[in-house]
Amino acid sequence: MQRTDLGDLSARVMSQLSHLADYALALTAKEIDVYREGKLVPFVELRRSVERNLRALLDAIGAPDRRHDFSVVHGTGRRRARQGVPLNDVLGAYRILFTAVWEQFADAARQDPDSLPLESLLSVTTVLWQLNDDYATALTESYRAAEVHHSERRRQQRAALLESLFTGQPVRGTTPWEVAKLFDLPRRGDLVLVAAEPLRGAEESLPGIERRLARLGLHSVWRMTPVAQTGVVVLREGMFNNLVEVLRTTATARTGVSPIYHAVAETARAVRLACAALHRLPEDAVEVSVLGGRPLTGLLAHSADEGDRIVEQVLGPVLALPAQDRDALLDTLQTWFDHDGSADNAAQQLYCHPNTVRYRLRRLHELTHRSLTRPHDVADLAVALEAYHQHRRRPL
What is 3-152's CATH number, 3.50.50.60, 3.30.710.10, 1.10.490.10, 3.40.50.1010? Predict the structure, then answer.
């Protein structure tokens, strides 16, 4: 069959393009659920797309030896990938288009055998089969490429929103509540921030922690950076101790836990608190430190420089002692605070005589010039001791 013959036949079908597009659209909506629902691809857009693709297909049939222009097919593949239409459904819609075109030629042959003999119909069929393969390949390639691009964009967007969640830096056009929804976090609820020191090569020191917590029914969202593995955990009632126990059995490096907080917008603050808890532990320790919820703890966690200044001003002479003497005095002071200022109870905790506790406290008085009988001096020592625990090593 001559090329001009195919061109004439294609032109005859092209004259019925609007009717053919309506027919193909009806078949597509009938056979493919995603198109029938009209949620991912509105009907108006689908109708335009069907007609554009039919026009391009008939042009290709009319000039089979010409280099085919797949721009319409590529554009359709990219759009459907962005819209989330499954590739099999997109390919299915194209098969329906090819079927509708073949039926149009077959009907013309039945109605006027002289103008479209069997030989001509076979030629059209051969061209259609070839184009079907070419179109399927072009569509799949463009769909996959767009899918990869879209997936990378989603990954980058998720990473940016995750950064916003943990740092508190706003993302233009997005509220904290929208960020919370993306990560399935409640706007209000009991939340805890966990910060773990990474292993060498920025390897996770809480391996598989998200899966382990999920087994307890605890939803969590995690971020890994070169300096910390941090996660927001949504607590269920009475599950705080279970969380800490899972962390203790999983941790392979020092790990800090913030006090419970109640709003996603407070996550950045909770990160600082969890890091402060982490740095209360000795380097290379494989332990979990839980930071108390006292206001003083949170206040000092916000200003490392000011904490260091307070430590030096109040405890400077104590820190200048040999390590063993320094630790004995500071441990005694901390235990005395923990036991409401009772030397007897502190002595039981320290496994020493109460007079030993009193001697060490007098020694602290001599070195710091602050008395444990004057409220302001007690406050100075309490703040300095808390700051010492938080800031004796550089935070993450």
Answer: 1.10.490.10
